[in-house]
Amino acid sequence: xxxxxxxxxTGAGQGIGLAVALKFASEGVKxxxxxxxxxxxxxxxxxxxxxxxxxxxxxAGNSAEVSVIDSMIxxxxxxxxxxxxxxxxxxxxRFGDFLTFSEKDFEDVSEVNLKGTFFLCQKAAIQLIxxxxxxxxxxxxxxxxxxxxxxxxxxxxTKAAIEMLAKNLVVELSKYKIRVNTxxxxxxxxxxxxxxxxxxKTWSQITPLGIPAEVNDIAEAVCFFxxxxxxxxxxxxxxxxxxxxxxxxxxx
Length: 252
Hints:
alpha/beta; NAD(P)-bd_dom_sf; two-stranded parallel ribbon; SDR family NAD(P)-dependent oxidoreductase; Rossmann fold; oxidoreductase; SDR_fam; globular; single chain
């Protein structure tokens, strides 16, 4: 029997992050879940353990804070003995016209999407190097890192930067057998997006495949990158958008 792998997934209280964590647990991967919302994080952890006993551990907190990142890694190693996979899924979106976008919103987006992602990669890589044997890191980008979308200049900038980070880490981490890739979701049905009652209809009309993604569609892409099936893939971005970036139709 092979070594049981251990993963960290941020932003895992619901939506895509929770779907990724559930997929890992179903495949026998132990999971440390992180979310800013402690109640969501705890509930998600319990839901996984109810189906897959003793497979999940919750570490709530702001994923942009290095101390919280350190805690995730410490708890993974303390409770599960190692770390093999990291999914930097946490991110925040701030819509706003470029000409009036506030400094506070810019700082919030940058703090979580850039700082949190960068230092999670750094701290995880240190642990993976210490262990030896390599590992897999997946960063969460977005279709707007590939194609412009009105009122998302700051957010889109961070997502394009995340993809460049993955490419740069090929140079930094490949010698340690650590692979770094990104998944770029398009319109996806989550608790947050479904707060907009027009979301499903709008994106069904402008997505070439005729429907937005479900969270499991994104989870499958993430887990592929972390699997042995992708053992020779690094520095790449996989767009999961039903073809939207090929046509670029904008929502009204």
